[in-house]
Amino acid sequence: MRLSACMIAKDEEKNIARCIESYRDVVDEIVVVDTGSTDKTIEIAEALGAKVYHYQWNNHFADAKNYALDRAKGDWIIFLDADEYFVKDTALNIIPLIRRLPSQYKAIACKMKNIDYTNGKLLDEITHIRIFRRDRNIRYKNSIHECLFYKVKNKTIEAFLADEKELLIHHEGYSLSDRGKKSKRNLELLLQQLDKALEGPSIYHYISDCYFGMEDWEQSIKYAKMFIDSGARLVGYNVKPRQNIIDSMLRLKCNADDILKEIYVGINEFPHHPSFHFYLANMLYDLKKYDEAYKKYEKTLQLQKDYRDIEINSIMPNLPHIYYYMGVIASHRNDNEDAFNRFVGSLRLEKTRQPDCLRRLLHIIKDFPDEDIILLLNSLYNKDDKEDLDFIVSTLTEIPLPKVLAYYSALRIKKYGSDDLTVVYMLLANSQYDKTFDVAQKCLLEDPKNKAFEKIALISALMSGRREYLNWVETNASEPIQRFVKRMIKHEIPAFSQEDKEEYLNFIIHLYLFGNKEVLNRGIQLAKYFSNKIIYAELGNIFFKQECYTEAVELYQQYINLEEMKKEELINQIYAKGICWYKLREYEKAAASLIEAYERGYRQNDIYEFLRWSVDKFPSGNSLEERYLEIILKP
Fold it and tell me: DSSP readout, 285-341?
């Protein structure tokens, strides 16, 4: 038995060697059809033993591939594109696999993983035929999006599905960053053939894909529906038109009920495909139906684990997000153990693109011993990797874990040199306020508009208690900071303007992260000098985000007591107060506030979730339970 490897290529000097070398040891000949390269593609191919043929490009991929088939002499063909390659030496399994194939099979299909070549991230998975018998009746068709077909009428190419462990291909010729450019190029070719759509309705699907890549959501929906209405089937891509419709509707912000209708159609049509359950879980999450969403995320994970079909599947790159959202829901439920496991699971899959996931995880464990936190972070991240270290330090500047921040800041400086911001964070975390002020002062003199160093200079001055530092800040900082200093130290300035609010809130965040309770309380007292008292609610939101619910509920209550807000603002503050009580595990107080918010008009679905979770913690016979039952049974 002889194997021929075939390829068409143009300007593939970056990819062609990797492709050929992935199967070179198992084939008897390599046929490369070059369609007009101007780089070193031909030179590299010939050096690797390929026979190179020149083909005058005619904008027809199938013609070029069939030209290659006509020059192959093997009993079986391996036909990869130059940006595809067998991974993990799986090409060594091709000959043993062919030898044990039952006679009815004319081809082998295997898993292909599409990798974004710009960042190495997995985009999706699909099953393709890339190995088949050399047979004059097995040919390619279509000028673009070419595919194999059997020329004998009413006969198809029966393919054996290889296990991923035995045969696996990676494709690295695609990136989300250039999707629009490629889609526009392909669309021009496809529209020229639109008059042939009755013969080959699959063109509607490809046009839909192009419009999706060009972010023309209405046209993408239109052509996806035309493909579905045609009744045509496209092996491996039958889920894609449904996905194009749903994804386009999401981007168009269509009515939730209309989107849900499409999702349920997808679930009914493809009940074992995880993608549609993922869509449903996300919709339920956005609708704040958290318990239902959690169950659907679980269903998605189970379907993904069991999935063996050949349809394109993009769940793998979304697994970090599934675990993240499950962690958020578990955290909402006060199930910190589950939340911890979900957030860790998410970060193990995708480390540095999820600052909120790491932030939430750190909040769960912020009362753990510092050495345990460092041990966990070292298990998730590579402390010898600059990107990992930068990500950890950046995230830790938003969490009150000074010793952990000091450890990673020092590590980052030792391994990769210092930058001024990392240095001041390390010094501040170590309570070295004089040194912190010196560095921040130097940086401010060089860049007076740098807000980060301005806040750090003020915090270090306040924490050191040195009047000369405060005098320098009062003279050299921005006007809002000068006013804060005068009010805190000299008790001057009767009121703050609305323009001071953003600077003030940012100042309070820095005080919380790097100050002490006494200085923080002095900072919070400045709120009374704002004429617009919504500042109390905004302060409450800061502490809520930092999961300091005792402080948040006090600030919300201060705002409520002022009785200076509109009805909707009042309702939202009462609701927020109820969530604080829930997070503090004061479930009766939580239920009382949530019921009050409901009776005043709050109707978003999360109120039913938190009410139910609160009531579930009650002893039986509580009067609030009766009111809760009246609420959920109300038509």
Answer: HHTT-HHHHHHHHHHHHHHHHH----S-B--GGGHHHHHHHHHHHHHHTT-HHHHHH
